[in-house]
Amino acid sequence: MLQTIPDNKFDLHLGPVLDPYHEMRATRGLSWQDLYICAGNRTYMVGSQNGGFPDFGHHVKLEMGGLWLHPIKLLDGFWLHIGDREAGAASNGSTAMWLTESDSFHNYPFYNEHRYRLEPLELEVVRRQFCPDDAEGIIVTYILRDLSGRSRSLDLNMLARTDLSPVWFSEGKDIVDGMDEGRIDKEAGLFLAKDERNPWHFVLGADRKSSRGKVGREMFGPHWTSGKGISGSLVYEKVSIPAGGSETIHFYMAGSNRSEQDALQTFANLRDNREQLWEAKRCRYEEIAKRTVLDIPDKHVQKVFDWVKFHNDWFVREVPDVGRGMGAGHPEYPWWFGCDNSYTLLGLLSVGGLEMAQETLSLILKASEEANGNGRIIHELSTSGLVANPGNTQETAHFIQCAWEVFKWTGDIDFLKRMYPAVKKGLSWLLEDMDPDGDLLPEGYGIIEIEGLNVELIDSAVYTWSALLAGANMAELFGEEEARANYGQLATRLGDKINRDLWIDKEGLYADAMAPAGKIASRIDIYIERAQNFGALDAVRDLEAIKAELSGLDPASERPWLFKNWVINTPMETGLAPREQAVRALDRMATDEFTGPWGTYLSGMYRDQMMTISTGVQAVAEARYDRMNESLRMIRLIASTFNKRLPGSISEMSPDYGCFVQAWTNYGMTWPLMTFMFGIKPDAYRQSLTLRPRFPDDWNDMSAKQVQLGLGERANTLDIEVSRSGDGDVYRFELQQPGWSVNVELPQPADDAFVVTLDGEPVTTAVREGSIAVAIANAGKHELRVSRTG
């Protein structure tokens, strides 16, 4: 296997913290659909793991790959042609070839490599690329090593194909893509291109001056690409490689959606500060790795957990004049979503993403206010700055719940003050505009859009309940007693209604929807026909049963309906379900009816598609009721899909399709582990922390260190270690900053015969609901022991 080639001009240094993170796969014969990302907050590049740049995509048809600088695309791709100046020198007489299909692909936390073994040219080549932070460009490095044992003189031809074009949903700004134009600056040795209608620019050059170059619209490298681009090639003659040695050439690709001067300045920054830019990004990724460092018995889950921390950074999308926040999924959904982020940001909180969670919610709120203005939270915001979907009902409630959790972790009261007016408007929108019959169940699409059933859905109802609780807590904090009482009363009424009217006792499950029989009857034959065409016999059977129930029902009568979509887990995910109902539902959800080989089915009727978010919600729901063995099973199912498509990543659709990396996957990997297993629940504003550790049965020694709590003057860092044995359990924890109180809730031993000591001294405890409660004021470094005496 070709190893990384030492480079005395640019010593690749990851350091001991990042060195362990390297995933790879052989790529000969690999499908072009096996994609990867070279991630950056301003630019990113998507291509094939085999080294190619295929046309693909449906948002911007055939254009979702290549090099992007949102809100525009820069390149379809680039290709290097290598020629040996000694004609016939190689054993088979071949003297020149394009780098096309690589032998292997290697993924690292913030860069990637394609490795080639070119037998005809007796060369090994590594292509390495990384996108520096805050830079509108990419650095691509080729390392060429001689295998012939003789000195070499090579001609290199770098060809780049531009496609300067707008992001999806830009037509609302009357943006029209023009043909690209290009030229060669011979004196500077650069290829420059621009869009004929817009101030979009691209610059390509290297760490040395090119010998010559040319431009052509019909000039292509190894394969053709679609679009209105133009190609430019730069030739570098007589590149010397010593016998058995190597030579490195760095290419700099820069762009701008403002001016050529800006693109040239970026080019110069990349060229002149290559090492510093690398080191800055390396150090920042070290800091990501050093936050929330787990040591748990399941080393595969631990490894995937660590990679998910890096994935979070791959989604940071920053666009001048629009905003900065977490995108959703690569390659098709790199922009911002309301629904996705209400899951994603919770997964981000416990691994150090407090500021990014706030930034993302602020961006979503700003776009929602501009597009709607009535408290409704948007679904989708393009990097063009335009809202593509004003928002489903569930998203407003989910946003409010998420904002409260973000506040609890950050303690930033100014952030909450900015959120609160929209929270009040959002609750009014949900319970007035979207609840015309006044039954507290908002109408409108939720996460699962059941076509034609724009009715009262379980997820919208459950998240509205959670949003009302959040609203009550916010109102109390701001001294609005009337609002607190109103929201609290409404939450109680809504919770009771969900648990009474949407619970189907004969099924032991919550319903998907509350709807009039006539509305279901108007769609049921369409659903049955689709299931038949799909060959989903289980779905046909279930739908036929619903049709039979419809006969004799008053079309106007409302009742709950079960379509077995994964969102029926939301009452357990949020803790709304009473324990008896929750356990019945979770037991059934864990069976083959709802859980497949890679996770929770999107539909228990169809039983075909699985997704990390449906499995993640199941993991959270199980953990919510202290079913940690069952929760770990779901976490492991998510982790089992690691490396199935992209080395170092998890696909959106399980096991290996859809987006090759998806932001909300972190919800199932981090939230149940950190908030329920390690039991970390901060109230940073009050400088208070609840620790309620509960672990799977076969986990005995585990720790989580450098967990960030709070921002600004309320910032703190937590380390927690747990050791369990037959004689008792030891809990060690440390808060680095003074002034916080800690309430520890430890599991009560089954035989009720135990002694608790705090820092070696007996301590007074309270026992309630199966927990031993210990309160510590002004906590620092402590050890709690629960010793069994029976």
Automatic annotation (TrEMBL):
Q: Which Pfam families match?
A: Bac_rhamnosid6H
- UniProt domain Alpha-L-rhamnosidase six-hairpin glycosidase: residue ranges: 395-519
User: What Gene3D superfamilies has UniProt attached to this entry?
Assistant: 1.50.10.10
Q: What SUPFAM superfamilies would the database entry show?
A: Six-hairpin glycosidases
- Cite the InterPro entries for this sequence: 6-hairpin_glycosidase_sf, 6hp_glycosidase-like_sf, Bac_rhamnosid6H
**Origin superkingdom:** Bacteria
Name its GO BP terms in alphabetical order: carbohydrate metabolic process
Signal sequence span is none
Q: What is this protein called?
A: Glycogen debranching protein
Classification lineage: Bacteria, Bacillati, Bacillota, Bacilli, Bacillales
